[in-house]
Amino acid sequence: MALRESKAFIKENLRVPTKALDRSFLMSAARTSMSSKIIGTHSDFFADIAVRAVLGIKRVGGDGKDRYPIKAINVLKAHGKSSAES
């Protein structure tokens, strides 16, 4: 019962539509999700790449809702260079 009530509260009061978020919130979320010792020094660089990639594949479905087909993003690596260059 408490679980149902908490889910209902979150849906009604805490949920924010993605259209209401601007780029700074998306950058912050990307930086937080990719925080690690390997890319920590380049977190702004990689967060910008991730946000640009996701916003670049945005499609509007037949029902008028925005869709982000994440599988459409391809990652290419260049071996032997620094993390920012690859």
Question: How would you describe this structure to a colleague?
Answer:
The chain has 86 residues and is mainly alpha-helical. Helices cover 44% and strands 5% of the residues. The protein has one domain (24-86). Helix 2 (23-33) packs across helix 3 (43-56). The radius of gyration is 17 Å and the shape is extended.
Radius of gyration from CA coordinates: 17 Å
Low-confidence stretches: none
The number of strands is 2
DSSP helix fraction: 40-55%
Order of helices and strands: HHHEE
Span between termini: 50 Å
How are the strands ordered across the major sheet? Answer: 1-2
Structural class comes to mainly alpha
Strand content: under 5%
Major β-sheet profile: 2 strands, antiparallel
Mean pLDDT: 86
Tally the structural domains.
1
- The shape, in one word, is extended
Total helical segments: 3
In short:
By secondary structure, the chain is mainly alpha-helical. The chain has helices at residues 2-14, 23-33, 43-56; strands spanning 59-60, 66-67.
Summary tags:
single chain, 86 residues, mainly alpha, two-stranded antiparallel sheet, 2 strands, 5% strand, extended
